[in-house]
Amino acid sequence: MIGTRTAALLLEAGAKEVVLYDNLSFDAPDATLRDLCENQRVSLHQGDVLDQPALEAACEGIDGVFALAGFMSAGIAKNPALGLDVNIRGAQHVLQACHVCNVGKLVFASSSAAYGYGAIGGSISESEPFHSAGVPAPPALYGASKVIGEQLCKLYREMHGLDYLALRYSTVYGERQHYRSTNALYIIEAYDRVARGLSPILFGDGSDTKDFVYVGDVARSNLLAMASTASGEAINISGGKPLTVKALAETVIRLAGGTMQPEYRDTPTSGFRITTDAPFFYDNSRARTLIGWEPEVDIEEGIARMITWRKSVTAQTA
Amino acid sequence: MIGTRTAALLLEAGAKEVVLYDNLSFDAPDATLRDLCENQRVSLHQGDVLDQPALEAACEGIDGVFALAGFMSAGIAKNPALGLDVNIRGAQHVLQACHVCNVGKLVFASSSAAYGYGAIGGSISESEPFHSAGVPAPPALYGASKVIGEQLCKLYREMHGLDYLALRYSTVYGERQHYRSTNALYIIEAYDRVARGLSPILFGDGSDTKDFVYVGDVARSNLLAMASTASGEAINISGGKPLTVKALAETVIRLAGGTMQPEYRDTPTSGFRITTDAPFFYDNSRARTLIGWEPEVDIEEGIARMITWRKSVTAQTA
């Protein structure tokens, strides 16, 4: 989702060579990936971030690396040992490969999960600590794994002078939306139900808030971070606005042409929900100052684009 | 340091069998360990927490496990990949072994580093988040690895019903003091210098505070945590008092019979210092409520005991 979009932007910007390194564990190459790879400047290496020699081979002669591989909360819940291995040893392997191959800059995909959940609220800036009291283990482990990834970046900068920026994406949504992001499910699952004539389901009273950022804006932040002289910093890449899940579901219904109302249910006791105690948003003013980024696509436009993409995919496979 | 002390207390308390599992990477078995192992109820397994099959073999038929193995900040600075592996994959392996072997309870050695450093101050209770902004990478990585260890415990309890308590020890000092705990160096290095007629060295003005807890009190907390019906909780095991490093150095001088004053130096720019922005202590009232523990040995008595031990070891090796 973020990787192919970033690669496409790099090609547009005139990159001489783009190497995609992926274990293809989630999907076989689809139309988007095949289209990308038809470009002579693109090569795809099937490899794993846990495979240090393969990673170093792929980083040979590379100017900049975007480290986007990682497990999210739901994946960690299913396989905690592998998830932590990929997020922590994987990050360390990428850093080591960057160091060994003299890569000029690393953009590390961190997450607003680095602030944790639960006792957060209001405007959250980059100095906010990591909250995990009372939070279910999988999202707490995901967030803590991102804290460790960032600190490993810092260690490699302190030890080896490796330049990096850690981008703390909030919940990313848009074209190529997958089902692995617990918070993005509020959009894609709502749309899937509306498309079948069903009401989107909300747990509780729908007043819980999220902060969404459009995938195209995220890809653009990756390029700006890579081109920037800033280094050694963590930066929020976010919509910067709190949005209730109720407002979100209503927006999805409207843009998808539905007429139903969301359906409210009690919060399930099984599984995990990622909630916070108060409305919040991730302050993205540092992104403006440090790398000249701000979000350009608002939630209406972003959801409209996601729906257009979703319809085109459904039409192709129908 | 904590392991042999805990084992000795277990034997005193009438434990039928005590298995010591250690890779002996730091020291060959010394007199204390040899004495322990002469007890027919004690067996020593040389093994590593990264060796899952060996760990499971050692946990066979065991009622309770104390998970004490781990790298601290200084060790992580030297070998970050191995340090994180031991603290994170190691913790996961111990949990898996406890699950597979139906161990009744796990006492997990966490740390007050789980609150991080920097922007902390005052009375710190168990709900305090993890602070890492502006903190050097090694102690931030150490603290985050303990956060992950605790969350893995929580995950195993959620998934498999494994009972555990995570004990967040503050800076542990006392007999068998080693040089791996950055904060405990304020005691042992001060003593080493006084014993040679030199002034203990303090960086800055000596007003930085620490919270120390005596090793015998820590071992006792381990037994109380194991015997308690409490489960799924993190508990501060601390002195519960802020102590300036200046007062500490003066106490060491006085108890060691010295007459010098501490020597003040500028904070070095190389290496890392673990400091906080304000005087602080870790509130240990939950330990009283949940497992009936409070510290019994104050800093004067504890340092006196450490000095007695240190002199006896020096006399033996002289």
CA-atom Rg of chain A in angstroms: 19 Å
Secondary structure tally: strands of chain A: 14
Low-confidence stretches of chain A: none
Q: DSSP helix count of chain A?
A: 11
Characterization of the model:
The structure is a homodimer of 318-residue chains. Helix content of chain A is 44%, strand content 17%. By secondary structure, the first copy, chain A, is of the alpha/beta class. Chain A has one domain (2-178, 212-240, 276-296): Rossmann fold (3-Layer(aba) Sandwich), CATH 3.40.50.720. In chain A, the strands form 6 sheets. Chain A has a 4-stranded parallel β-sheet, sandwiched between helices. Chain A has a two-stranded parallel sheet with strand order 1-2. In chain A, strand 1 (18-22), helix 2 (31-38) and strand 2 (42-46) form a beta-alpha-beta unit. In chain A, helix 7 runs parallel beside helix 9 (245-255). The longest helix of chain A has 24 residues, at 137-160. The interface between A and B is medium-sized, with 31 and 31 residues.
